[in-house]
């Protein structure tokens, strides 16, 4: 089994800190904040869903922008700039109550987040590949799990209301972004030129299409609980129930262990079979609030979805690279673009579904159907050949 040497640890830490700053604090902090901002009267549930939609649209645009940025110059300069810009946008939310300005900020946050979420893990994956250590790549997502716990603590402990609830989150995101930006820039400079360039060719063919279609469903499937589970808990649970706040803690705890868990399961079963198991569990977690409304459904959804969605990301990215080893960052950008595009449907659907008088709970059935679609296409994905990697000294 591969062990982390000092250089590999620093490479993984660089991307992990970036994911804490942009994805956990910049993006997912919105989930535990949402019911509190609703109570503060900052906006309505429909407006909150609109803000989520703008953020997910930005995420899609950022992932598409990452396609041309997956180059030596983009990794060396564009990635650190996007990371710092994202942290600045998180801080800017402290200073406005205007819903239109918040929409602009959430859109811009999503764009910069999409760039970083694609390029930072892709950079580390390529860096590890030349050291014959791609099996360690899933560890970068430990940053997201740890960051979700961190943002949960920051949300609960802040004494302020309204836009000021973003202040402690921003004050943590800014130094993390600064540290990570410098580390990622140095990492990009160390990457051999042969590993930075993708070989021209088709990204979409018979080998990659089933995996791409599966990932399309995964984006819609996970985004409903990851955005609306705390709000759904208010719909299903009585006032004062510990899961009204505690559901996010269970989600974050499950997420924290999931990167290591699915990294090991992928090594044990193979990434393709591990991904099939992942989708079964995630489907069950999304359906539980519909099948068992109340504490069991809320807790089960928090644990199962929190413990699987990161596994979906790392297993899919690794499986895709094994199917097309010469396409690296370009394929990662395409996958995240599909993931981001299908996420847009979630908050848009919730906005119109609840406006028509339906419950938030019933909307989760759409997420379960999307994950059933993902499971079907994953069964049709091919098993990759033995990967060929550019060789340098392996991580020991």
TrEMBL record:
Domain of life where this protein originates: Bacteria
Transmembrane segments: 53-70, 77-95, 107-128, 140-160, 166-188, 209-233, 245-262, 274-292, 298-319, 331-350, 362-381
Statement: the UniProt record of this protein carries the keyword Membrane: yes
Keywords recorded for this protein, A-Z: Membrane, Transmembrane, Transmembrane helix
Protein name (Swiss-Prot/TrEMBL): YbfB/YjiJ family MFS transporter
Species: Ectopseudomonas khazarica
Lineage: Bacteria, Pseudomonadati, Pseudomonadota, Gammaproteobacteria, Pseudomonadales
């Amino acid at each position: 089994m591969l062990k982390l040497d000092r250089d590999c640890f620093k490479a993984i830490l660089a991307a992990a800190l970036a994911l804490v700053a942009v994805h956990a604090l910049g993006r997912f902090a919105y989930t535990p904040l949402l019911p509190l901002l609703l109570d503060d009267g900052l906006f309505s549930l429909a407006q909150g869903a609109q803000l989520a939609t703008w953020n997910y649209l930005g995420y899609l645009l950022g992932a598409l922008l990452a396609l041309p940025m997956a180059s030596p110059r983009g990794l060396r300069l564009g990635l650190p700039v996007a990371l710092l810009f994202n942290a600045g946008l998180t801080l800017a939310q402290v200073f406005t109550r205007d819903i239109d300005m918040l929409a602009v900020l959430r859109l811009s946050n999503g764009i910069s987040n999409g760039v970083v979420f694609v390029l930072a893990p892709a950079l580390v994956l390529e860096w590890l590949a030349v050291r014959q250590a791609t099996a360690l790549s899933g560890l970068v997502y430990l940053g997201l799990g740890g960051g979700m716990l961190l943002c949960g603590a920051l949300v609960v402990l802040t004494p302020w209301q309204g836009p000021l609830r973003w202040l402690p989150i921003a004050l943590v995101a800014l130094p993390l972004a600064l540290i990570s930006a410098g580390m990622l820039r140095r990492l990009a400079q160390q990457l051999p030129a042969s590993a930075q360039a993708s070989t021209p060719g088709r990204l979409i063919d018979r080998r990659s299409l089933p995996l791409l279609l599966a990932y399309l469903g995964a984006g819609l499937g996970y985004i409903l609980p990851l955005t609306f589970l705390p709000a759904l808990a208010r719909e299903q649970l009585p006032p004062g129930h510990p899961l009204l706040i505690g559901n996010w803690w269970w989600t974050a705890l499950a997420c924290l262990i999931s990167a290591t868990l699915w990294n090991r399961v992928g090594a044990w079963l193979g990434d393709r079979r591990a991904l099939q198991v992942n989708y079964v569990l995630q489907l069950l977690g999304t359906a539980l609030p519909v099948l068992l409304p109340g504490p069991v459904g809320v807790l089960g959804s928090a644990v199962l979805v929190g413990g699987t969605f990161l596994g979906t990301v790392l297993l899919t990215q690794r499986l895709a690279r094994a199917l097309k080893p010469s396409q690296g960052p370009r394929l990662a950008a395409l996958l995240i673009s599909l993931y981001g595009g299908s996420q847009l449907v979630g908050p848009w659907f919730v906005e119109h579904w609840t406006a028509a008088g339906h419950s938030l709970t019933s909307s989760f059935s759409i997420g379960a159907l999307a994950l059933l679609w993902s499971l079907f296409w994953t069964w049709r994905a091919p098993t990759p050949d033995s990967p060929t990697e550019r060789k340098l000294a392996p991580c020991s």
